[in-house]
Amino acid sequence: MKRNSEHYKSGRHLPAENRTFQTLKSGKPYYFFGDYLWEKYGRRVLKLPINAGFSCPNRDGTISTAGCIFCSEDGSTAPTAVGFNTIQEQMENARRSFRRSDADTRYIAYFQAFTNTYAPVGRLATVYETAIKEPDVIGLMVATRPDCLPDEVLDLLNRFQRDGFELWLEIGMQTMHEKSLQVLNRGHTHDITRAAIRRASEKGIPVCTHLILGIPDETWHDMMETAREISSLPVSGVKIHHLHVIQGTALEQSYLKGALTVMEQDEYVSTTCDFIERLRPDIIIHRLFGDRDERTLVAPRWSLHKGTVTKAIEDEFSRRGTFQGFLSQDTDIP
């Protein structure tokens, strides 16, 4: 899968004598979510993933019964939420998994699995409020589809905004390209995503968009166009994922038949740096690549080595002498 063979091997970089390497207080060349939280709250802040038992219109027949080709039967349920019925039990189990030190820690209740606004507003209010009442919870993050955000849901989320409370709406954008949304079997258009982002932003709700790099048949230029589109929208954060193949998905069937390849680590590292260079510098990077339990991950296996991949991305920025936003104003460059 050499989508950007003319780009990824060397990457765009500056001569050493002309480099002005920008970093935050953390020393990173990108605005990372963990660093943002530390600077804001002065302590460790972690997400507690929750499966509240919601469904998805792309699974229950409202749009489709097949679901997105990359989504597993568990709807991205975190391992810490498996086997626990109540929200409180899931959150406590996640806390236990984080207790490796005595560091002062606060938490964000993260409604992650399936579509977390796809229910009557009354039920949504109940489950959100249940989660944020748990000890040391200072925030709420809700992951959803752009076509499941009616005004009454945005009004509900808006009620949670207050000083000292970390509110995020995570919208599954994946890409700006209609052909790719069809390949992924998303069941919505990019116009719907764009409208959802703007409607949420008008209410002051911080939006994090979920993106996938390496979608079948997307070119390097396609991915860079998505980066520029994000920077043109009122987006506060972005979660970048590589296309990975999970057991039990339509993607797995294609992969095992040899009809699909996935990015190698070096290509992904270079493409991610290219992507981040085109993002506005104020956009917070919530994630640099996908994360999946090794027992259900088919490919690529390099993503299991989180520290190695993160270091490779930071080393590539250092080699180039660039940083987030480096090309965000340069419209002459793809």
Q: What's the helix and strand layout?
A:
Elements: H1 5-8, H2 33-41, E1 44-50, H3 87-98, E2 105-111, H4 121-132, E3 137-144, H5 151-158, E4 166-174, H6 178-183, H7 190-202, E5 207-213, H8 220-232, E6 237-242, E7 245-246, H9 250-256, H10 265-277, E8 284-287, E9 297-299, H11 306-320
Parallel strand pairs: 1-2, 2-3, 3-4, 4-5, 5-6, 6-8
Antiparallel strand pairs: 7-9
Helix pairs in contact: 8-10, 10-11
Explain this structure to me?
This protein has helices at residues 5-8, 33-41, 87-98, 121-132, 151-158, 178-183, 190-202, 220-232, 250-256, 265-277, 306-320, and strands at residues 44-50, 105-111, 137-144, 166-174, 207-213, 237-242, 245-246, 284-287, 297-299. The chain has one domain (5-320): Alpha-Beta Barrel (TIM Barrel). The longest helix has 15 residues, at 306-320. By secondary structure, the protein is of the alpha/beta class. Helix 4 (121-132) links the parallel strand 2 and strand 3 (137-144). The chain starts with a helix and ends in a 14-residue tail after the last helix. Helix 8 runs parallel beside helix 10. It is built from 11 helices and 9 strands. 34% of the residues lie in helices and 16% in strands. It is globular and about 45 Å long. The strands form 2 sheets. It has a 7-stranded parallel sheet, sandwiched between helices. A two-stranded antiparallel sheet has the order 7-9.
